[in-house]
Amino acid sequence: MSDVLSDAGSDSNHDDSQEDVMTPAELIAKLEEAWLNEKFSPELLENKSEVVECVMEQLTHMEANLQRVKKGDAKASVHRMEIDRIRFVLSSYLRSRLQKIEKFFPHVLEREKSRGEGEPSLLSPEEFAFAKEYLANTETYLKAVALKRMPPNLQTVDMLKAVPEPCLDSFVFLRVKERQENILVEPETDDQREYVVDLEEGSQHLMRYRTIAPLVSSGAVQLI
Amino acid sequence: MFCEKAVELIRELHRISDGQLPAFNEDGLRQVLQEMEALYDQNQADVNEAKSEGRAELIPSIKVRHCCLLRDQRCVTAYLYDRLLRIRALRWEYGSVLPANVRFHMCAEENFRMTIVVLSQLQWFSQYKKSLASFMRSLGGGEGLDITQDMKPPKSLYIEVRCLKDHGEFEIDDGTVILLKKNSQVVLGVAWDILSCVCVMSVSLCPQHFLPRWKCEQLIRQGVLEHVVS
Amino acid sequence: MNTQAYLPVQPGVGMEENFFSLDDILLSQERLPVRTECAFPRLGFLEKSSDSQDIAEGTKMELPLWLSKGLYERKRRILSVELPKVYREGWRTVFNADPRVVDLHKMGPYYYGLGSQMLHFDSPENPDIAQTLLQTFIGRFRRTMDSSQNAYNEDTSAVVERLDCLEKVLFRSGQTGLHGFQSWEKGQASQLTASSLVLNYRKRKITDVQP
After folding, report:
1. B221 and C192 in contact by Cβ < 8 A?
2. Of A49, A86, A118, A220, whose CA is between 20 and 30 Å from A193?
């Protein structure tokens, strides 16, 4: 994949305003990492708009280059395939996020509201707009069809209570990218005690998401 | 017992667990709302009596009715919310234009009568489509990406499909118009660019076409084309 | 891979109930034996066996879980809730002896769900109920998992009909995994397929939807 990207990008003039130097291979690796984490984590993760934008730009480059390749060139079909594959990963990533936004919208918006200044946003601007519209649309609908025809003290439903929160106690598979020491594991039953584990680099585990959530966002572990 | 009608609404949806949208039970909803009104009125009367005449022994019954009101409210909103999830599914499975037989399910049982309920559902759906469209359009700094396509990872350059229904004319990106006729066997290519020269010829000779895969994904989902795996 | 576009609200985990979950609403419809600890004036019609205008104190009757939960208070008790038979000591002994032989569909079908909900009501037996629920689940889990992971193109109805609702969900997810793996092995995983929703809509005639 990386090969094709650099190949496709090489003959285009690089006027991009990408400050941090990232090779196409690194970019795609970043996308795949974000994709898998998002797919397997029960909650919505921090948005990666910059990765999404760079990948979209790359796809445009590749498409443009492909237009210039002569018809019948066997290389072109391989490139076309790569474009399709990258576009699939990107779409699938954005889909997983949108699905979670729809599933947890009141909570996602609440977190966004209570976010401190300088704290990174969970939602991209586009996702934020979508979530707000989804909430307003749904509330309008419930109100118009039923709530406003109910007795006065029953005309509202607290969406934060009605729509379930993500279940952070779900178990996830993970691979350790950076060695971790003294991870506190909560007891599963009353007769167990809490204990600490070290996570060796490259090792794989099945753990409660809540325990390792901070490590997912820091990039120290990869969900698989 | 109270709240039987409300639970009946829930059972109606629960029975159809695959996500299909049954006709809106407007009559059921009306009956629940009537029950709520009656419960509320009775409670108002009892609350007043309890206050003015000091009849505290009425409180347990007031509580019972209040629980029933909350139960009715929960069932009705859950009924409506689950319907939204089913309507949402339509956008992802059918695309933004729904076939007439499916549009029917948005409506109440008495045909296409435009009640507030029907109208509100259609409004929710059209707003959802709008939100989704503007989300997809704004991706990548306005470049746009249709994320309702590419549902499965691409595995091959070509896919062979069989046409299950007469679908009529279908335009390929390069402007070629092909006719999708029932039972015609079609080869659709991912790498349509290198083969487009072949494509033009084949259209005139036999019903074999090369289309970009993303163009047929939706037709396959809608059951117009069938993906043949050899 | 999740290609199904209808994503219903999942039931709550453990003692939680999800407000919008259809499953949880139906679970909370299960009836519990209760005894009234005070009179309920003007609600006599809810109690079929008497003609009185009120429900008298000390009446034994059955109420749905949602109402029992709503009326239950620790401090001022207007209702005491009794355990349904399957959670009482007699049945607990049976479950603890060999949980695999019990027909949980008949006993439930919300055996675990209702059992967990019973923990909301203060009872000295709660720790034992919780323990039995857990042991029953563990005792049956291996068999449920084994059959769901291995029964390919077999009639599983005999196994499935004895499962509780929660176990059924697990069984189905195991089967989905198995079928997904098989179709991947046969190289069919990349096949694009028609949406099952679309196909089901087509099967249903418009007349069928009229209640």
Report:
1. yes
2. A220
Contacts 24+ apart (CB under 8 A), C187-192: C187/B229, C188/B229, C189/B152, C189/C1, C190/B152, C190/B153, C190/B154, C190/B155, C190/B156, C191/B227, C191/B229, C192/B151, C192/B152, C192/B159, C192/B216, C192/B217, C192/B220, C192/B221, C192/B227
Per-residue pLDDT at C208 exceeds 50? no
Say yes or no for a CB contact (<8 Å) between A126 and B70.
no
pLDDT tens track for B60-72: 999 999 999 999 9
Q: Report whether C62 contacts C36 (CB < 8 A).
A: no
pLDDT on residue C10 = 94
Q: To the nearest whole percent, how much of chain A has pLDDT over 70?
A: 90
Give contacts of B 188-217 with C, CB under 8 A.
Answer: 216-217
Domain span(s) for CATH 3.40.5.60 in chain A: 167-224
- Residue at a domain's end among C47, C63, C82: C82
Q: Would you tell me the crossing angle of helices A74-113 and A125-145 to the nearest 10 degrees?
A: 60
**The dihedral of CA B162, B20, B88, A109: what is its sign?**
negative
CB A198 within 8 A of CB A179: yes
Q: Is the pLDDT of residue A137 over 90?
A: yes
Chain A residues with beta carbon closer than 8 angstroms to that of C9: 163-164
C197 within a domain of the structure (yes/no): no
- Using CA atoms, how far residue C179 sits from B152, C126, C185, C191, in Å, is 16, 40, 10, 14
Which CATH class for the A2-127 domain? mainly alpha
Report the Cα C42 to chain-centroid distance in Å: 33
Q: How far apart are the first and last CA of chain B?
A: 59
With CA atoms as reference, the chain C residue closest to B62 would be: C40
What single letter denotes the amino acid at residue B178? Answer: I
The C-alpha atoms of residue A132 and residue B160 are separated, in whole angstroms, by 42
Which residues have C-beta within 8 Å of that of residue B63, sequence separation ≥ 6?
C70, C71, C78
Count of CB pairs separated by less than 8 Å, A with B: 138
Interface ipTM above 0.95: no
Same domain, C93 and C177: yes
- Give residue A32's pLDDT: 96
Looking at domain B4-138, its CATH architecture is Up-down Bundle (1.20)
**Is the CATH number 3.40.5.60 carried by domain A167-224?**
yes
SS3 at position A133: helix
Asked whether residue C57 falls in the same domain as residue C133, the answer is: no
pLDDT in tens, A13-34: 444 444 567 889 999 999 999 9
Q: Do C9 and A167 touch (CB under 8 A)?
A: no
B73 in reach of chain A (CB within 8 A): yes
* pTM summary value: 0.88
Q: Tokens for A130?
A: 């979508």
Q: Does A36 touch chain C (CB under 8 A)?
A: no
Determine contact: B160 vs chain C, CB below 8 A: no
Separation of alpha carbons A33 and A221, rounded Å: 10
> Which of A180 and A70 is assigned the larger pLDDT?
A180
Cα–Cα nearest to A127, from A104, A93, A97, A90: A97
Max CA separation in chain C (angstroms): 70
Averaged pLDDT, A180-185: 89
Write phi, then psi, for A43 (nearest 5 degrees).
Answer: -110, 165
Q: What is the pLDDT of residues C145-184, one digit of tens each?
A: 999 988 888 888 888 899 999 999 999 999 999 998 988 8
**Domain CATH for C70:** 1.20.58.2050
Contact C8, C25 (CB under 8 A): no
Could you say which of B40, B154, B191 has the minimum Cβ distance to residue A151?
A: B40
Give the separation between CA A41 and CA A28, rounded to whole angstroms: 20
